[in-house]
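Re: duplicated header lines in exported structure tokens

Our pipeline writes sequence and tokens for each protein into one text file. With two proteins the header for the second block appears twice in some exports. Here is an export where it did not happen, for reference. First protein block:
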Amino acid sequence: MPYRRLVPPTRPIPPSQDASPGSTTTVLLPAVCWGVPNTDALCRASAESLVPLLPLLLDGLIKTLLDLPSFDSPVHDHLATQISYLYAHCDPLNDQDFADGLMLEHRQFHYDALSKLGLGTVPFSSEHRRIRDDIRSVRREPRRGSWYMPPARHG
């Protein structure tokens, strides 16, 4: 699997007060390592960027989190931190129509991440694994909370 490596510049960079001493190498993993499926949308997103479209990225992170064999692991904590960061700092996630771009089985996770406490915790992940499995087996459908306005109608 190909990886892309960003090599630090050869010219000296003035140190900042926040920077730690020493050289830094950043390795960018392919989107498939993030759990993002290889789709036409990913190919279109990757033509100009290494980062997939936000709904594809979030779907991949949620899927990988909920598919973990155990939530008692550093991998869970790492993925939960990434997902929590997106919800804290990505305004498009608050858009009324954003959930429409997510896989059906991840929409309840999205609605609850916006409306409930506990995102990133083991109980939240455990509950949403059960919810996702119920949605997959058509025993339930995702529901927005009363706080969530109906999606905007365009046209």
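Second protein block, exported in the same file:
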Amino acid sequence: MNMPSYLPVLFIFVAALGVGLTFWLLFAVFRAKQRQVQSQGLTKRPDGGINVPLVAAFGGWKFIPWVASSSSSIAPLLVLHESDLEYRVIRAKRRPYTEVSSVDLRTAIGTVNIVFEFRTSMRTFAANTASRQNAAEALAILQDKGCLLTERARSLLATREIESE
């Protein structure tokens, strides 16, 4: 039995097409979620906390700022309560604002991340808001709670104040 010479080429073409369609589908789903989150604003919860809508959440380390050790785009959470913040990458945690050593803002194409560093941990929490508006509102609340904002975070707030005048 002789295999036709076009079968390996056909197999490679079909495999490449399948991989390409899979990546396109993942990109389309991510983009749709990103647009949905961008259109939402901060909302007040029944318990009084303020929910910040997120596309994804990441857990990382202070000494490697752009590398995540854990991530979640299924059920990310950031809630700003009166005396503490609640967040979730894999499981929900609550920390008082006094444990937050700094709040940074990191942006890249399609991402607007609020990054929390904690005094008692080498771990960080990054929340992708996908919206400069939502990030600015959350940063203003965090600043009012006494959290130390980095220069990048303060510059977003300054830009927001200029635009509102």
